[in-house]
Amino acid sequence: LAAAAVWLVRVPSLPVRHVVFADVLPHTKRGEVEQVLPQALKGNFFSLNLEAVRGALEKLPWVRKVDVRRQWPDRLEISIEEHKPVARWGEGRGELVNSYGEVFAAMLTEAESSGLPLLFGPQGTAQEVLKHYGDFIEVFKTVGETPVQVTLSPRLAWQLKLQNGMLVDIGREQPKSPVGARLARFIEIYPETVAKRAVRPAVVDLRYPNGFAMRVAGE
């Protein structure tokens, strides 16, 4: 049995002849796969290192997760999950945030990136910033506005930029004046106090415990 096992691992007559990809890959190019895959296809059907194949493919920019299976007698089936970009991360670094809140480096066309919000935050905070972005979207939907940029500063203060160009300084989370309470107070009176103004405020400052300040450009 031991000799048979050694023979199966070493026999050159059982090569992998077919590699089949189970998923349509919108962003990963065939040329990228062909560049990294042959180096990992060492050995025969039994001795081939599946982890090496998985690791080689997961180095590609758009690949998030890879599953590799042997199919007798000479075939590998590979399933690839690509990143699904939901936001841009930072500025000028070619980084994106996927639907899991993970940052990855990949390039989008200008048309593809133009509809994505821009998120900023300290290293390791992408998941938190993405979650708050989703919360802010729901809050501002009630007054017909859309956040297009969310920033979490190094001091953990929040700032939004709306589609109409308005900046909203929310500030840091405070026990006596939570971010949600300050934002809810602003949204409650937004239709009468802000939306009906002939000139919208350039900046709204919500960092006060019992009110907010507005600055109109030129005033």
Please characterize this protein's 3D structure:
20% of the residues are buried. The mean pLDDT is 91. The chain has a 9-stranded mixed sheet with strand order 6-5-4-7-8-9-10-11-12, covered by helices on one side. Strand 7 (118-120), helix 5 and strand 8 form a beta-alpha-beta unit. The longest helix is centred in the middle third of the chain and has 16 residues, at 126-141. The radius of gyration is 26 Å and the shape is elongated. Helix 2 packs antiparallel against helix 3 (50-58). The protein is of the alpha/beta class and 219 residues long. The chain is 30% helix and 27% strand. The chain has helices spanning 2-10, 30-40, 50-58, 110-114, 126-141, 179-193, and strands at 18-21, 63-71, 75-82, 85-89, 95-98, 103-105, 118-120, 147-152, 157-162, 167-172, 203-205, 213-215.
